[in-house]
Each structure stands twice: as C-alpha cells, then as structure tokens.
Amino acid sequence: MRSKAVAFVFAMIPVVSAGPVVAQTLDDLKNDHRTPGDILTYGMGYANQRYSPLKSINRSNVAKLVPVWNYSLNNPQGQESQPIIYRGAMYVTTHTSTVAIDALTGRQLWKHELEFAPDVFKMACCGLVNRGAAIYNGKVFRTTLDSHLIALDARTGKQLWKTQVIDYKLGHAMTGAPLVANGVLMTGIAGGEYGTRGFIDGWDPETGTRLWRTYTTAAGNEKGADTWPGDTAQKGGAPTWLTGAYDPELDLVYWGTGNGGPWNAEVRKGDNLYICSVLAFRPKTGELVWHFQFSPNDPYDYDSTEVGMLVDMKVGGAVRKVLVQANRNGFFYVLDRASGKLLAVNPYVKVNWADRIDLATGRPVESDVTKRVRAGSDEEVWPSVLGGKNWSPMSWNPATGLAYANTLNLSWPYKLAKPEFKQGEWYLGIDFRGVTMPKNEPHGYLSAIDPMTGKSRWQVAWPSVPSMAGTLSTAGGLVFTGAATGEFAAFDAQTGKKLWQFQTGSGIIGLPVTWEHNGVQYVTVVSGAGGVWALLGDERFAAVPAGGSVWTFAVR
Ligand SMILES: [Ca+2]
Fold first, then answer.
1. Amino acid 366: pLDDT
2. Rounded distance from Cα 73 to ligand 1 centre (Å)
3. Measured distance CA(317)–CA(125) in Å, rounded
4. What torsion, rounded to 10 degrees, do the Cα atoms 291, 46, 136, 126 define?
5. Phi-psi region for residue 279, left (φ > 0), alpha (ψ -120 to 50) or beta?
6. Residue 117 to residues 93, 96, 123, 145: CA-CA distances in angstroms?
7. Catalytic (active-site) positions
C-alpha cells in the first residue's frame, strides 16, 4: 500500500508529466497485478491472469458503462494489441505504429511509425497484427513484422535502438509482446508454417544486445535431438510467437511453443522436442529447467504458444502453485509449475484425435481417427486447426475458481500430402482445406471452465462468428470480452448472464484491460476486425467493417 504522503505526491504530478518519467523498476513489474492504476505487463501481471481487484464497476452498475473516448489507430488490419498504461499514458501498437495516448482524454501524445518492404507481409501467416508493447526503465519495447526489436523513449517516442532478430526472408515474423523479467528482455518468433527453426531470445534492455538464444527444436548434440530423424529439426518449427509468463519466486519463465514443421508429422517420426510444449527456463540465461510436451509428433498444428495462467489453486485438498492451460489440442491441463508434473487433464471441447491423455505419462492416447490419418486416410478431426481455443488468452477469477475463455466448436478435414520445402512459402505437407463449421450448432462460446474437470460451469454461444478475443476478469464479478461482430460486452462471472454491451464499429479480436485513476475505474479495449478468422472466407465476416480504434469506458 502506498502511504498517504506518497499518494499526495503522485496526485500533484500532472497526468502526463512534462518532466522526466520515473522509470519503471523490476519491482513495479513484479507488483503489476497489485497496482490497478497501471498496466505494465502483458497479462496484467506476470501470472497472466488478466484479473483486476477493481470492483467499482460491478454487476449492479455495469449497465451504466458509457464511452469516455475513442482514438483511431488509422490502421485497417486486425487489432490484437494489449494496452500498457503508466502514469496516465497508454501505449498501443499496430503492425505499422506505436502510439502513446493520454489515458484520460484519448489525445495522442506521440506516434512512431514503421515501414516495411512489400515481401514482409507474405511471412505473416495469419494476419498483419501486433499484440502489444513491454515497458521498463523508461523504455517501450516492441517487435516488428520484419523481425526486428525496437526500444522507444516512453516519454517522447524517440527510437533508442533497433536490433535485427533474424532475417525475415527465411520465413519469420514477429507479432508478440516482449516480456521483461529479472532484468532481461525476452522475445519469441513466428514462422512455424514456413519450415523455420523456432527460438526464444534474451536481450539487454538498455542496449539491445543479445544475451542468449535458446532454440526450441533440439538438434546436433543437444538433449532431445534424437527425437528428430536426420536434420529435420532444422526446419522443425516450434515457433514461440506469443508471450511467456513469469514466477518471480521460482525465477522461472514459462513460454509456449507451436506446431512442428511441416504439419505432416510422418516425415519427422519421433516426439520432436520441443514442439507443442511449455518450456520453463531461467530468464538470465535461457537455461531450460523443465519442459512438458502436450502433443508429441503433432500433425494438427496444435500450437501451445498461448502459455496459460499461473494460479495458486486447491488440488486434492492442498493449495498448489500450478500452470493452467487450455491447449489448442482440446485438453485443459493443470501442471505443477515448479516441477512440470501433470496434475489434471480433461477435454474442454469436442475432441476425436485422442481418446484421452494418460495422467501418469502426460502422453496422448491417439484415437482410431489419428491412426487412420497417419495411414493416409481422409478424416474429419476435432478440434480444428484453430484449436479448442486459439491464440487469445483467458482470464482467472480467484473468487469463482474458473478460467474464462473464448472456445471454438469446429472441426477440419485432414489428409496427408507430400511436403515440399521452398524458402518463404508455407511448408505443410497436408491437403489443407480450412475448417468445417458444424450445421445447427454454435461455432464458439464464451466458456467458464473448471480447470480440474475441463467442464464449463456455463457457456454463452456466440450467435454468429465465434469470438477470438481475450477475456478480462474483475473483482466486480464481471467478465469482459468482445465479439467478432464488434460488440464489447460484460457478463456475470457466476452465471454468464450478459449485463451490458456496446457496438465498437469494427470486430473485436483484442485484449480488454481495466485500470483506475483518482478512484474512477476505466475499461479499455482495442477494436479492429482481422486476424486469422478473416483468412477463412466466412461470408458472415465480410459485413464487419475494418478500422482499428481504441475505446475507453467508465460509469457516468
Ligand atoms: Ca498494475
């Protein structure tokens, strides 16, 4: 708690300080979840719970929520950026810009713009997006589609340094928000569809000098290299295109990895470490402490890049430090986050690729469907290539003990084909025909999931296109999320009853946040249709206007 004197000093500083910005410290980042006046991390705290203790907006007054301001991002692509808020400034990214906005008025403070060579866009498999910035020690950090990492002065937007992470022409892109933990700036990489080799990097935030690189496919004399035939690990995928979580007490960063390359797993027989896994490593060195592989030899593009949430939860009568994840493979996992031991695993959507996950070994028991797929048969597989849940994060409410996620009810037709590698092009090795939308059933839900059973306490069906947006939970008993058709909405966390909604003018695929200033609670979401769903040719989506903007709401 801040003393009254300190609070007074803070109140005397104008919302946007003209003087030097007090630098964010590592302690500020560590305490982010306890300081609802700012949002300093992707995930609203290192634990990635996207939970706020704020409750002045609650079940009884959320119906009075009205917009306070709207800011145009001047960008027609999908908007997946989570805002960062510090000392009255809000930082939002698009694929072509980083902006600082006065959080109370919506006035632009500065804008930093990017330009790309035209061939860059081909390397972004699934939409021209960026998922947000990181902030530390007076600097704003972001990644770029052409695989660079940039540091900007948080006060002026001036570029302080720019580093090439890797040559994008190899088939890489960067869309994720960086993570700063224990003084190290960390980034992942995309390119799992292009026959690339994934990695995670650690950087010096002051200079942009690379401190370490940990590859996510094991090769050469590395442990696990024997899970790849020949040199297949070199094009083996395991991309790391989202953001990790961090436990400061254990000093472990948790980072998810994606699919193997090519999707056709018959050409890379073996477990293929570390595709479709969570890696627990030391932020100072990148040294791997433990790993858990969800889908060994995955043929289905079941990325595990969305790492999930770190929660302290009762398991068998005792409170355990766990990592919970709604995996794209359709199973909900509870892992001990100190050791990686599997504590519970159950399906949370319709699954037919595996009969179950063996609790003792953590390995899937592949179904007859997958056995036939591996033999070359054409099969309908659940869940689809988009997974039981796609990239967007869920949120946690400690009062309900539930995980709130936008889940998908889709399958896909699957048949192996011959993979052919060509640099900078998709390297799949399957007859890819998109997803199947079931008739007479919703295609997605907002689901309130019990982590120990995978069962939903309640589900709300999306009436049209399913939502790919993130969720936000609050102590006000609310869950906020957005619809692909543009409605930003609040639901009762206990019952799923919709309590409020507002049409934002374009589709929502972003990450809502809440924050306060002078005792007033605000809710912010970035609107802007696009992302992976826009690539599916769904005619229902064609009627949703493009156009990125930031909305901030309050009860008035
Ligand atoms: Ca905070």
1. 98
2. 24
3. 44
4. 70
5. beta
6. 19, 12, 11, 10
7. 301
More confident residue, 114 or 4: 114
Q: What are the two backbone dihedrals, phi and then psi, of residue 6, each rounded to the nearest 5 degrees?
A: -65, -40
Please check the confidence at residue 16 and state whether its pLDDT lies above 80: no
Other residues' Cβ atoms within 10 Å of the Cβ of residue 208: 18
Q: Are 87 and 21 in contact (CB under 8 A)?
A: yes
How many angstroms does the Cα of residue 476 sit away from the middle of ligand 1? 17
Residue 44: Cβ within 10 Å count: 27
- What distance in Å separates the CA atoms of residue 297 and residue 302, rounded to the nearest whole number? 10
* Ligand 1 centroid – CA 391 distance (Å): 23
SS3 assignment, position 9: helix
- In DSSP notation, 112-175 reads EE----GGGGGG-TT-S---B-EEETTEEEEE-TTSEEEEEETTT--EEEEEE-S-GGGT-B--
The C-alpha atoms of residue 69 and residue 553 are separated, in whole angstroms, by: 7
Summarised one tens digit per residue, pLDDT across range 461-476 is 999 899 999 999 999 9
Phi/psi region, residue 194 (left: phi>0; alpha: psi -120 to 50; beta: rest), is alpha
Asked if 187 and 176 count as a contact pair (C-beta separation under 8 A), the reply is: yes
Give the max Cα distance, the chain.
Answer: 71
Confidence check: pLDDT of 525 > 90: yes
What is the three-class DSSP state of 226?
A: helix
What's the CA-to-centroid distance between 322 and ligand 1, angstroms?
A: 22
Residue 311 alpha carbon to ligand 1 centre in Å:
17
CA of 517 to the centre of ligand 1 (A): 12
CA distance 44 to 38: 9
What is the DSSP code string of 143-156?
E-TTSEEEEEETTT
Distance from Cα 179 to the centre of ligand 1, integer Å: 15
Q: How far is the CA of 28 from the centre of ligand 1 (A)?
A: 8
3-state secondary structure string across 254-285: EEECCCECCCCHHHHCCCCCCCCEEEEECCCC
Mean pLDDT of 26-42: 95
How far is Cα 314 from Cα 320, in angstroms, rounded to an integer?
6
In whole angstroms, how large is the CA radius of gyration of the chain? 22
Alpha carbon of 15 to ligand 1 centroid (Å): 16
Cα separation, 295 vs 544, in Å, equals 35
Helix H or strand E encompassing 371: helix 368-374
Q: Which residues of 401-423 are buried (b: 16+ CB within 10 A; e: fewer)?
A: ebbbbbbbbbbbbbebeebeeee
Q: What is the mean pLDDT of residues 193-222?
A: 97
Q: Tens digits of per-residue pLDDT, 419-449?
A: 999 999 999 999 999 999 999 999 999 999 9
